[in-house]
Amino acid sequence: MSNTLTPFVYWAQTEGQVTLKVDLTDVKDLNVNLKETTLQVTAYGQGARGLNNYSFDLNLHSPIDPNESNYKVIDRQVDFVLIKKCNGWWPRLTSQPQKPSWLKIDFDKWKSEDMDDNEEEKRDILNDYPDMYDKLHKEEFGYRKEDFTKVYLVIYNLCQFVGFIYVLAVMAVRYSRDGPDSMKDTYEAVGHPFKFIQLLQFLEVMHPLFGYTKSSVLVSLLQTSGRGFVLFFMVDAEPRMQTKPVVFYLFLIWSSVEIVRYPYYITQLLNIEISFLTWLRYSIWIPLYPLGFVCESIIMLRNIPYFEETQKFTISLPNSYNFALHFPSLIRLYLLFLLLPGIYTVMLRMHELRQKKLRKPKIKKKYC
């Protein structure tokens, strides 16, 4: 007869319940004995040691309600939902401080359900209870584990912040020295570093695709591609536009937004809450986004006669591809059908985020 082994068990909790994930597949002969402070499970299935008999016993930290608790067997695991008799966060799952080696923490499921029912998103314990999260992480791994994604995002945001600070510093020093006369040489002074950090920003479209961030792919794409179009096709491609004061104002607006946005992202990654920075992040766009939109529109409108004259980026017939493109007309279409709807979409998204981030959460707590 085969030996009885212990499966891996992953646990998580909210204020009102504990969830267990038993890592067994093809489960047969499942036997569950659930009481207020104990859980006994035996089963035959495919676990870490192959097909075998598995069992485990748990002495729970606090009482649960066996009648309200439940479990279900699915293809890849057995899931338990244990309803706590008294709402509250448990410092550990077991009554004894020693944690069995087969008991793991399921950090992906650590969500708080203390928000209103009409909230679409659940809050993360990492943000709500950072001390407990760190304690559990240390208990599980012996140290606070920092994954590659977090380290990468901190470095990326820091580099972008330094880049935009550099652009603003150069513009400020030149303006304090030469006054308004410095505006005509703004692109010559900071154009190359600005192009570099703008190219780096295209990584922000990839971050949500890879699951690094939870931001909207559409909003990131609209913001980044819109700036890229203005910077590379409207300013960099037309030398006469580079000397216009509107380029100075556009760079000033873009950089002012980013020197707030990137530090805010860094503090969120490091679990540091600075109320003023949060307010600034979700308020500074209100005056600056419309001003940036006006500057971008002015640059495009003033470029139309330039591109009519030079025919740059215009493709005329006949050609081997039998394809024609009139670039000034494309600029007009971009203004009408992409820039206007794009700025509306971005500002609507920012308004929703502002409402969510700056309102005071209504937390419901129940205790026995």
From TrEMBL:
It comes from the Eukaryota. Residues 4-94 form the CS domain. It is a multi-pass membrane protein. The keyword Nucleotide-binding does not apply. It catalyses: a very-long-chain (3R)-3-hydroxyacyl-CoA = a very-long-chain (2E)-enoyl-CoA + H2O. PROSITE patterns: CS. One of its GO terms (cellular component) is endoplasmic reticulum membrane. The chain crosses the membrane at residues 151-173, 247-266, 331-350. This is Very-long-chain (3R)-3-hydroxyacyl-CoA dehydratase. It comes from Temnothorax curvispinosus. The lineage of its organism: Eukaryota, Metazoa, Ecdysozoa, Arthropoda, Hexapoda.
